[in-house]
Amino acid sequence: MWYAFICEDVENSLSKRKKVRADHLKRVEVLKNQGRILIAGPNPKIDSEDPGIAGFSGSLIVAEFENIEEAEIWIKDDPYNLHGVFKSVKTKPFKLTFP
């Protein structure tokens, strides 16, 4: 089943994001290579493709897991979560309707 990770960043998260971004992307890339990523990306703090120093307010990842427990374990061990980028994470089952 698909699960949505709705992640909210701590204030001024940009420097923390930059420090562990490569590790975070490497981890997400594993799921991508397994065909288990539907969509993933950050939420810019401003209405811009490149928010610059404004940074990001959070992230959205929709990925496939066997069950919600497996999904929650995966996001708990994500570098952004482990290194204090995320203030909170909601994990919700996601039913793909479109496309």
The percent range for helix content is 25-40%
- C-alpha Rg (nearest Å): 13 Å
Describe the main β-sheet briefly. Answer: 4 strands, antiparallel
H/E series: EHEEHHE
- In total, how many beta strands? 4
Shape: globular
Q: What percent strand?
A: 25-35%
How are the strands of the biggest sheet laid out side by side?
A: 2-3-1-4
- Quick check: average pLDDT? 98
Q: State the secondary-structure class.
A: alpha+beta
Low-confidence stretches: none
Termini, distance in Å? 16 Å
Distinct helical segment count? 3
Question: What's the arrangement of secondary structure elements?
Answer:
Blueprint: E1 2-9, H1 14-33, E2 37-44, E3 56-64, H2 68-76, H3 79-82, E4 86-94
Antiparallel strand pairs: 1-3, 1-4, 2-3
Account of the 3D structure:
It is a single chain. The chain is α+β, with helices and mostly antiparallel strands and 99 residues long. It contains three helices and four strands, in the order βαββααβ. The protein has helices at residues 14-33, 68-76, 79-82, and strands at residues 2-9, 37-44, 56-64, 86-94. It has a four-stranded antiparallel β-sheet with strand order 2-3-1-4. The longest helix is centred in the first third of the chain and has 20 residues, at 14-33. The radius of gyration is 13 Å and the shape is globular. It starts with a strand and ends in a 5-residue tail after the last strand. The model has no long low-confidence stretch (mean pLDDT 98).
